[in-house]
Specification:
Strand 4, helix 5 and strand 5 form a beta-alpha-beta unit. The chain contains eight helices and eight strands. The protein is globular. It has an eight-stranded parallel beta sheet with strand order 2-1-3-8-7-4-5-6, sandwiched between helices. It has a single domain, classed as Ureohydrolase domain (Arginase, Chain A, 3-Layer(aba) Sandwich). Helix 2 crosses helix 8, helix 3 packs parallel to helix 4 and helix 7 runs parallel beside helix 8. By secondary structure, it is α/β, with parallel strands linked by helices. Bound molecules: manganese (II) ion (MN) (2 copies). One manganese (II) ion binds next to loops.
């Protein structure tokens, strides 16, 4: 029999089906449902590689989707932030399923309120540091610029970047972002944080050969195994995470949804290992 306390510390899966801050294609609003289908698929068992059985209620619970249909701008972000803040008050670590990458902004703000001095580990082909994109400050190309402007985060460490232009290099310097570019991953094995960490995983960090179901193809990326190894191995205490930018319109055979489900499992396992 499970104690109430153990169940209260289960990882909560929370869908954030919003893609109206995308710059190129829509589709990620359908991602939470596709990732859940892949997680429930009988082709794989529910265990993490690290030994947690996610079919057990004290390990994983589904908190459903934040009702974002027809919502945008401040209204959508406030609904995301308040939904996450409410779950955090109950003590559950949260794994968010995007959605485009703009959803990370309110998700991190909620976590930074609960965990002062929060660090961010950000896996992406793109640094997402644009001052704005097409006049939209909420763009999925800008969440980490908005977050660094708040001054409430400790470190932002990015891995897998391979699209830096002049503007984003300047932004990275201005905000003190630590970048492990794809062309030099020599420091990745020693990534370490003092204190709490939020992981934001944009699926386009993977090479399109591993994960074709994304809006922005950027060849020369990570292998699925490298991402899993990093989830398992970085030093620090993981307290929250998101997986964003699955685009089911571009995902034949649900290949990328299955990759996302595998990463959900390993991230949930890391959240369970690191819970207090
Ligand atoms: Mn990206
Ligand atoms: Mn991104």
């Amino acid at each position: 029999m499970q104690s109430t306390q153990e169940i209260s510390k289960a990882v909560s899966l929370l869908g954030l089906p919003q893609d109206n801050n995308s710059t190129f294609l829509t589709g990620p609003h359908m991602a939470p449902a596709r990732i859940r289908e892949a997680l429930d698929c009988d082709s794989a068992n529910p265990w993490t590689e690290t030994g947690f059985d996610l079919s057990r209620a004290e390990c994983l619970q589904d908190a459903g989707d934040v009702p974002l249909r027809d919502k945008s701008g401040d209204e959508a972000f406030e609904l995301i932030r308040s939904s996450i803040a409410g779950l955090l008050e109950k003590g559950n670590p949260i794994l968010c399923l995007g959605g485009d990458h703009s959803v990370t902004q309110p998700a991190v703000i909620a976590h930074a309120q609960a965990y002062p001095g929060l660090n961010i580990l950000h896996l992406d082909a793109h640094p997402d540091l644009y001052d704005d994109m097409n006049g939209n400050p909420y763009s999925h190309a800008s969440p980490f610029a908005r977050l660094m402007e708040t001054g409430s985060l400790n470190r932002l460490v990015q891995v897998g970047i391979r699209t830096l232009n002049g503007h984003q290099r300047e932004q990275a310097k201005r905000f003190g972002v630590e970048i492990h570019e794809m062309r030099d991953l020599s420091g990745v094995n020693s990534i370490a944080f003092d204190g709490h960490v939020y992981l934001s995983l944009d699926l386009d960090v993977l090479d399109p050969a591993f994960a074709p179901g994304v809006s922005h193809y950027e060849p020369g990326g990570l292998a699925t195994r490298q991402v899993i190894d990093l989830i398992h191995s970085f030093n620090g205490r993981l307290v929250g995470a998101d997986i964003v930018e699955l685009n089911p319109h571009r995902d034949p055979g649900n290949i990328t949804a299955m990759v996302a489900a595998k990463l959900v499992k390993e991230i949930a396992g890391r959240l369970l290992k690191d819970r207090s």
